[in-house]
Amino acid sequence: MYARLVKAHVKPGKYEVATRRIEEKVIPLLRKQKGFRDELSFLDEDHEESIAISFWDTEADLRTYEKDVYPDLMKSMTDTFDGKPEVRHFEVANSTWYKIHAT
User: Fold this and answer.
1) Domain boundaries, position 26
2) Is the dihedral of CA 102, 3, 96, 101 positive or negative?
3) Residue 64 lies in a domain
4) 3-class DSSP state for residue 52?
5) Tell me: the pLDDT tens digits for 58-92?
């Protein structure tokens, strides 16, 4: 199991637009991707920093999404994020979540 962390700074006044777009566009598209398991999104108390963690069956599934789908999704989010989001990959070491297993 692999995790993909995306950390972005939300432009002032764009929190609601960003969360709505994630709900309406990003999550439905993620659900169609091979190997996608789940997505968690977090926003700090000042609505300035957003973190999203997606979970994938294999590293290959994660990288295919990142190469083939993610660039176009980010183009649709440029008006809500300040700068380029930071992206990191992790192998899941431990988990207590249903259907999310460490590899």
Assistant:
1) 2-91
2) negative
3) yes
4) strand
5) 999 999 999 999 998 888 888 999 889 999 999 99
